[in-house]
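Q: Could you fold this chain for me?
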Amino acid sequence: MNLPLHGSGRGRSRHASRSAFTLAEIMIAMGLFSLAVIGVVYAHLVGMRMFTITSTRLSASDSARKVLNRVRDDVRSGKILNVGNGDGAHFTNIAFNGLRQGNALQIHPTTDTNVFIRYYLDSASQCLVRTASGTGQVEVLAPYLTNRIAFYAEDCTGHTLTNDSNNRVVKLVLDFYQWEFPVAQVGAGAFYDYYHLQTRVTRRAIE
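A: Sure. Below is the predicted structure, expressed as structure tokens.
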């Protein structure tokens, strides 16, 4: 009894060769896959860079907001305000008819001039510092400052006063820088973002 043969070995070999990839097709597939991987890696790197830049700016904004809130609360609750020059141990008022501007602001919460809160720019450390009488504590509020004059006493039109007017407005100006990439080292190739912060505050109750 003879059984029919379905195909031969040579026919199956030709069918298998038709279903395989050629060298050119493999190289094209590898090239496309490599381009896709490079695109994904590049997008990831760009996303990381944008995240770093955004985090730096958000950090600077948050620090600035905290400084403004602190100064604002102290100025609004103060009874006596004096703009001058000083440090952690001394404060000097501006001379008669001199422009009321300097690196320090002294706030007296009451009419007792022995009790005070003092803000000043420390030129050595380039920081805005807050201290209070009787505590001996020094609190750094803002680092990396570049300006030397931070406080101004102005009138309602924005002109710097030459006298201690009772209804004066205190203007605060801070110029500071912050690393664009916080993980980078200081030196050649380091990048910084510069910020200019300015606000005006007056006492809540003018007597």
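A (continued): The helical segments are 9-19, 23-76.
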